Amino acid sequence: MLRLDSAPNRSHRPVIGLAAIAALFLLVLAGCQSLPGMEQRDARLELVYMGQQVLPHGHRYADTTVGGLSGIDYDAATGRYWVISDDGSDKEWSRFYELALDLSLFSMAPNPGHAGVTLFGVQTLKRLDGSAFPSHNTNPGLAADPEGIRVHAPSGRLVWCGEGERMIRPGEPPVLANPNVWEMLRDGTLLRPFVIPEKFHASARNRGVRRNLGFEGLAFSPDYATLYVMTENALLQDGPAATLTESSPSRLLALDYASGRPRAEYVIDVAPIPAPPAQPGGFADNGIPEVLALDAERLLVLERSFAAGTGVTIKLYAVDLRGATDVSGFEALAGQRYVPAAKRLLLDFRTLGIPLDNIEGMTWGPRLPGGGRSLVFVSDDNFNPRQFTQFVAFEVRER
Question: What pTM value is reported for the model?
């Protein structure tokens, strides 16, 4: 999540002109480009753009503002989706929603409407004592910063992750809250925390997660035995945050679902910021907001970048964990020899020719009539009137 108190507001604009019409029907992966180090071992994927839906800014449901949607997951048992808001109890209580998406109503029109989005319920995220999380504005050390949500299909329970907090200001005591992964019931009741290695913990020293660059991506393996959680950028002791010239070695933490304990860690390099800000010295970032299992050894990894005055860049990669080094034994990556996971660029969303917002969530949806899998994305509008909540859908074919 990019907090608006730490960077300029994000705006949106069309990123491609009239060529969009042809791009809407393009099989965007048929000619995907290999990145350095990527072996040609994965099956060829094809993505077909199906359309989008856009909620109006400030959309209200059950006395809550529907916004800040940072994670999404499809629940095959009900045919509905779970989405989590990153509201730190500043507008309403930290919360998550249940909704339905009618993919047949997704539209390629510039103003697609939101007839295909139906909300069915909202639940408050709860602490272990059953109370709601306090506001980040008044108690940032105890507030929630929800970013990802997944369904554990065998049990029907949900898991969610949060970035925590690391606020270091001269002359003030540090505000530190560790990144977290929790299991909960569908009414928001917390059941247990997963064990997070100390190297990820928020610290006033030069180690642990960076502010706003902690846990965002969350994914189950296909057999639901492993839960992956991803930092948005490198830990402080591991290397730099992404810049216009430098990549950032982010850690993917594999957790054993049954025990809740760490199993392994891998490095996925976040690419350098793809586009500079319009004015020298302006804000720009790039990070990983979401991951999703493609199969037992590969993940889909989303990179989202923003540059002030330039806009949003969204890219989707296939990442192969085969051959990657388990770096769980390294307290810091600097000076260590390891092999990061291999990446292949699958899709640059700018080729779609549609206005793009701050896309942070990704999930497999239902099987489609032709047999392909649906893939759905959602954007976090930061509760900013210049942004919008966007659902984008694709058909994915693998051969």
Answer: 0.90
